[in-house]
Specification:
With 384 residues, the chain is α+β, with helices and mostly antiparallel strands. It is built from twelve helices and 17 strands. Strands 9, 10, 11, 12, 13, 14, 15, 16 and 17 form a nine-stranded antiparallel beta sheet that branches. Strands 3-2-1-4 form a four-stranded parallel beta sheet, sandwiched between helices. It is globular. The chain binds adenosine-5'-diphosphate (ADP). Adenosine-5'-diphosphate binds next to β6 and β14. The site of adenosine-5'-diphosphate has 20 residues, from β6 and β14.
C-alpha cells in the first residue's frame, strides 16, 4: 500500500528569503512541512520547494491563513506588525518568537531601552527628534555620532556615522507611525572586535549556546566570520553568558543571534538582536553538531535541542556579495567547486552589486586556514 506519510509537524514561516530556503533544507531532513509566506514565486525558499502562500506579511488575513493548521508560526524576517500576531496568539495559535519578544528585534530604540534599563551594557544612546538632539548628544559624548533608523534597517542600511553637524540626514525630525522618533543617536564605539553569539531557546525554557563567532563588517555589512572568535577564552565565555541572559530577558524563542561589540579595554556591549536564524550562523550547517536551521525548527516546535560544539578546530564563512563589475557566480560555480573543502551555498537570487547572493563555508585546522579557503572560493565565484 502506498500513501503519503503525515509530516512530523507543520511549521509556517513568514518570509521566503535565504533563511527560509536553508530552513527548508533542514525541514526536509526532519519530515517537517515548512510553509512559507512569499511575495512571489521566484523567492529563494519557494524555489527550494517549500509550499508557499502568497501575500503580504503586514496583511492579517495572510498571517491567519499561514497559522491555520500549522503547529507553530515563525519568521525569516522581523518586518511583521505586532497586532495581528497578538490576535493569533489570543486565538490559540503558537507563535515563536512571540510578538513582545519580536519587538526587541524590530525597533532599535525599544531594544536599547529594554536592555539598558535592565542593566545590560549598551552604547550610550538617545532618541532623536531633530538636529538639536544630535548636537546635544555630541556635546556630551563627542563626534562621531552613529545615527540609526529605529526600524527597517539591515546590512548597514539605516546606519550613518556622522562626523559633524553637516553630516546629518534631512529627515531627522520625521515622526514614526506611532508618533515617536524615527532615528536614534548612539555613541561611536572604538571597536576592538565584533562578536556574534547564537542562542537557541525552547518555549519550555531549555537553552543552548553556540561557540562565539567573530564577524568582520565592511560598510556595515558582514563580509566574513570565523569561529572560534580571536578573543581570550574568558571574554568569549563572558560573551556567551551575556547573550544567553539577553535572550532570556527579551523572552526570545527559537534561534536568536546576539551581536556584541568589544569596546575599549575589552568591554562588551550589546549591539543588536535577531530573533531568527541569522547570517552569523550560516557556518553551523557544516561546522557545528547541529545547524542553526535544524535547531530553529527543533526550538520553535519545543523539541529537544541538539548539541552545538564545533566539528573542526576552526571554521570560516565568507558572504558572496558581488561588487560592481563582478562575474556571475552561477557561471563560475564549476571552477569554484575545484577548491577542496569549500562548501558553496547559492541562494538562487539574481546577482546585483551589494546584494548577498550566497556564502561559502570552510573548516580547517585554524581560522586563518579556513578563511583562506572560503575567501579564495568567493573570489573565484565573483571573477569577471
Ligand atoms: P544593521 O541593523 O544594519 O546590521 P547595526 O546596528 O548592526 O546595523 O550596525 C551595522 C554595523 O555598523 C555594525 O556591525 C558596526 O560595524 C557598525 N556600528 C553600528 N553601531 C556602531 C557604534 N555605535 N559604534 C561603532 N560602530 C558601529
Amino acid at each position: 500500500m502506498t500513501g503519503r506519510m503525515q509530516p512530523a509537524a507543520v511549521v509556517a514561516m513568514v518570509g521566503a528569503g535565504q533563511l527560509a530556503r536553508m530552513t527548508q533544507q533542514a525541514a526536509v531532513d526532519l519530515a517537517v512541512e515548512l510553509r512559507v509566506l512569499a511575495r512571489s514565486a521566484d523567492e529563494p525558499a519557494v524555489l527550494a520547494g517549500a509550499p508557499a502562500i502568497f501575500g503580504d506579511p503586514g496583511d492579517p488575513a495572510a498571517l491567519h491563513t499561514m497559522a491555520a493548521g500549522a503547529d507553530v508560526l515563525t519568521f525569516d524576517h522581523e518586518l511583521v506588525p505586532a497586532q495581528p500576531l497578538r490576535d493569533l496568539v489570543a486565538a490559540g495559535h503558537r507563535v515563536h518568537p512571540g510578538p513582545d519578544a519580536l519587538a526587541a528585534a524590530q525597533d532599535k530604540l525599544h531594544a536599547r531601552r529594554l536592555l539598558g534599563q535592565a542593566g545590560f551594557p549598551v552604547p550610550a544612546f538617545c532618541p532623536v527628534a531633530g538636529p538639536e538632539d544630535v548636537e546635544r548628544f555630541a556635546a556630551e559624548h563627542g563626534w562621531p555620532v552613529v545615527l540609526k533608523a529605529r526600524s527597517g534597517g539591515y546590512d548597514g542600511r539605516g546606519v550613518i556615522v556622522a562626523r559633524h553637524g553637516g553630516d546629518l540626514p534631512e529627515d531627522l525630525a520625521r515622526r514614526a507611525a506611532d508618533g515617536g522618533p524615527t532615528w536614534l543617536a548612539e555613541a561611536h564605539v572604538e571597536l576592538a572586535a565584533e562578536l556574534a553569539v547564537l542562542v537557541a531557546r525552547r518555549p519550555s525554557g531549555a537553552t543552548v549556546t553556540y561557540p562565539v563567532a567573530q564577524t568582520t563588517q565592511v560598510d556595515g555589512i558582514c563580509r566574513h566570520l570565523v569561529t572560534p572568535a580571536g578573543v581570550a577564552d574568558d571574554l568569549a565565555w563572558e560573551a556567551a553568558e551575556l547573550a544567553q541572559r539577553v535572550v532570556q530577558h527579551v523572552g526570545g524563542t527559537g534561534v536568536c543571534a546576539v551581536e556584541l561589540f568589544v569596546g575599549p579595554a575589552g568591554r562588551l556591549l550589546v549591539n543588536e538582536l535577531a530573533l531568527r536564524p541569522h547570517n552569523s550562523g550560516h557556518a553551523t550547517i557544516e561546522a557545528n553538531a547541529t545547524s542553526q536551521f535544524h535547531q530553529h525548527l527543533r526550538a520553535v516546535l519545543d523539541w529537544p535541542l541538539g548539541p552545538t560544539e564545533l566539528r573542526a578546530p576552526a571554521a570560516a564563512m565568507v558572504n558572496l556579495i558581488p561588487g560592481p563589475g563582478a562575474g556571475d557566480p552561477v557561471a563560475n560555480l564549476p571552477a569554484a567547486l575545484e577548491v577542496p573543502g569549500a562548501h558553496v551555498h547559492l541562494y538562487a537570487k539574481a546577482s546585483r552589486p551589494g546584494r548577498k547572493v550566497g556564502h561559502v563555508t570552510a573548516l580547517g585546522a585554524s581560522t586563518t586556514a579556513a578563511l583562506d579557503v572560503a575567501a579564495r572560493t568567493v573570489d573565484i565565484l565573483l571573477q569577471p
